[in-house]
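2 proteins. here.
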Amino acid sequence: MGRKPKDLSGQKFGMLTVKDMTKKRDGRGSVYWHCVCDCGNEVDVPAARLIQGTCHSCGCLQKKNRQKIAQRRHLVDGTCVEVLEKRKSRRDNMSGFRGVFKLKDCDKYRVDIGFKGKRYYVGLFDNYDEAVQARLAAENMIHNGFIQKWKEWNEKEKEDSEWGKKHPFVFDVKKEDGEIRVRV
C-alpha cells in the first residue's frame, strides 16, 4: 500500500481553494483534490499540479488572459498585424527557415507561404539559398506589404473616419497563371 497523501484541505493555490480529497488518481497515482475557484466553479485537480503550480484556476484565468491578449491585438481583414510583425520560426521546421521544406525524395526545396488561413505555393528550388530568397521575396510582398498598406490605411482612417467607412481595408492574395499577386 502507498504512503498517505499530504492533506491539502483548506489550502489555496492561485485562485483554487482545496476542499477535500477525491477517490480519483491520475496516471502517476497523484490524488485528485476537489477545489473551488474564486469565480465559483468547482474542479478536481491532481495534487501534483497544485503543488507544482501548474494549475491556478478552473480555466477561467486562461480564458480571461486570452481575452486580454485578443483585445490588444489588431485583427484586420482576417489577419493579426502583431503576428505578422513578430513572426518566428516554428520549432518543427527542419530546414532552418520558415516556409522552406527540403523534399525527401529529391534534393530540392519547396517554398510555401501562409496568409489569411491559406497556403500559397511559391515554387520548387534546386538549392537552399534560392529557396530562402524566394521565401523572403514572398514575405516582403505579402506579409510586409499587408502591414505597410494597413498602416497607410489606418493613418487615413484616423484622419477621417468617414473615409474609412467608405473605403474598407482589403488586401487580397491570389495565385494567377502560376504567380502570386496582391490586390489592394
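next one coming up
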Amino acid sequence: MDDTPSVLVLGIGNLLWADEGFGIRAAEAFHSRYADHSAVRVIDGGTQGVYLVQHIRETDFLVVFDAIDYQLPPGTIKFIQDDEVPHFLGVKKMSLHQTGFQEVLAMAEMLGDYPSRLLLIGVQPVELEDFGGSLRVEVKAQIEPALDFAEKWLARLGINLQRRSERLADGETIASIELALRAYEEGRPHEAEAFRHGDDRVLAGGRFAKPSDLQSEDDAVLAIGPGAVR
C-alpha cells in the first residue's frame, strides 16, 4: 500500500481583478513547470470558498498561492507556514474568497481532516482595481521564486518534483484556454471599448463607493443573524 503523503497545490483568487489573480497564475505555472506526480494535485481554486473543503480534507501537505495584503511594499513575497496560515489569510481581507478559505480550513479541522503541513505563499498586490487586467510586472516576477520555494519546501517533506524538459504549451493549462495568461492579456479590449473600473449603469448611477474597511463590513454582515439587532 502506498503511504506517500497526498499534496494539494492550490491557487486561489480572481483573475478578473489584476493582481488578485496571482494565486491562479502561480498554480498554472506550477502545473506547467513540473511533471505529473502521483501524490500531487494542482487545482485552480478560484473563489470557490467552502466548496474546496473536501479537497482540503483529502490532503496531507497543502500549498496555497494567493495575493495577500500584508501592508508591505507592493510586489513583496512572503512565506507563511503551518499554524500561522489561517491568521495571515485574514490579516486584511481584500475579497470574500479569503473569508471563504478561512472557513474551509476551519471546517476541515472541525471534521477531523486537517493537513499536517501548510504553506501559504502570498504576494502583496500592486493593483487590484483594474477589471480585466493582468498581473503587474512586480507581482508576475514573483511567480518563479514562489515555485522555487514550494519545490524546496516539498522536497524537505520527501516530495521530490521533477521539472518537465519543456514547459507545457498554453493550450495545456489547468484553466480554460481562453483564460490562459497570454490569451487573456492579448485578448483584452482597449479601454475605450471596455471600462476598467466598473460600469456606472450598474453601480448605482455613479453613486457607488467601495467600503473604506472591507474587514469591518464583512464582520458586520456576518454578525447579522435571526436574533441580531438591525
